Amino acid sequence: MEKVIYDYEYVFKDNGNKDGAIIYCHGHNSKPEIFEIFQNYWTKTNYYAIQFPGNNLVKPVKDHKLNVNQFAHLLIDFITNNGLKNVTLIGHSMGGGTISLAYKLRPDLIGKLIYIAPINKTTSLSKGKYKRNFVPTTLSEYHDFLRPLYYDFDKLIGNPEFSEEVKKAFDPERFSNEYIKKLTMSMDANLYDQIESALDSIKVPTLLVLGEKDGVIDSELCLEYFKEHVKNLESIIVPKSAHIIYLENWPVFIEAVEKFLNK
Fold first, then answer.
1. How far apart are CA 23 and CA 77, in angstroms?
2. How many structural domains compose the chain?
3. Distance between CA 98 and CA 180 in Å, rounded?
4. CATH code assigned at 151
5. Phi and psi for 15 in degrees, rounded to 5?
């Protein structure tokens, strides 16, 4: 297995083909393992998913800043340091902003872009609405934090196995530490202006995947926004899904993604 160069944790699946490698970029306060369902499925090209500092209690090194611009630079460095070309970037939520800014930095390295419920000027996050709920201190508040992310959270939480997983995953420090606070505060209007400029510059094939009932991203507004700013856009709104689309309706999600990747 080849050596991977990166300052933070990463996921690597060696499928024996660097050309057209896929890199997954996680969302706010998340981790690369969250996209494991795709990692296990994909076999055609090498697959990577990288951790960004400040998220999931990860301490920054080398004076790395805690903002999406820094993540974009880390992503480009990851691509160049590991000799990857013709890369497909997949960005979920905040990761959508990361891949936009990375494309603007080095469009020559990117072959395709896949956006999964990406942050943008139309999101409640950019208006500060969702930001106020980012620091749950009790399990009940954590449920309220999770509810907008799922199509039918109340049904899910009624499942004892899911409920126990949520209980184990809850850690107030993960939401109240200084790193995630800095990152969240950096996601301001200036960032969304930069993302918009990056979207306007895209010339490669692009897929936008949205959920039917997303509590973070207004899917209809997001779709119209992307149609206005992104050329070569394909899109799908996945039924019976919210923000964590690939976990809620995997068959429809992967059918659209694989069709796009195979073109």
1. 13
2. 1
3. 16
4. 3.40.50.1820
5. -100, 10
Q: Are 39 and 32 in contact (CB under 8 A)?
A: no
47 contact partners, CB below 8 Å, separation of at least 6: 11, 12, 13, 15, 21, 22, 24, 38, 39
Query: What sign does the CA torsion over 247, 220, 98, 70 have?
Result: negative
- Is residue 127 in some structural domain? yes
Residue of 116, 133, 134, 142 whose CA lies nearest to 217: 116
Tokens of 146: 């999770």
For 29-147, where are the E strands, in sequence order?
A: 47-50, 87-92, 110-116
Question: What would the two tokens of residue 172 be?
Answer: 């107030």
In a domain, 1, yes or no: no
Single-letter amino acid, residue 229: H
Q: At 90, which amino acid appears?
A: I
The C-alpha atoms of residue 51 and residue 129 are separated, in whole angstroms, by 26
Q: pLDDT of the chain along its 263 residues, tens only?
A: 678 999 999 999 999 998 899 999 999 999 999 999 999 999 999 999 999 999 999 999 999 999 999 999 999 999 999 999 899 999 999 999 999 999 999 999 999 999 999 999 987 544 444 444 578 999 999 999 999 999 999 999 999 999 999 999 899 999 999 999 999 999 999 999 999 999 999 999 999 999 999 999 999 999 999 999 999 899 999 999 999 999 999 999 999 999 999 99
Cα separation, 10 vs 78, in Å, equals: 10
Strands of 131-205, DSSP E: none
Instruction: Catalogue the E-assigned strands of 101-227.
Output: 110-116, 206-211
Would 200 be classed as within a structural domain? yes
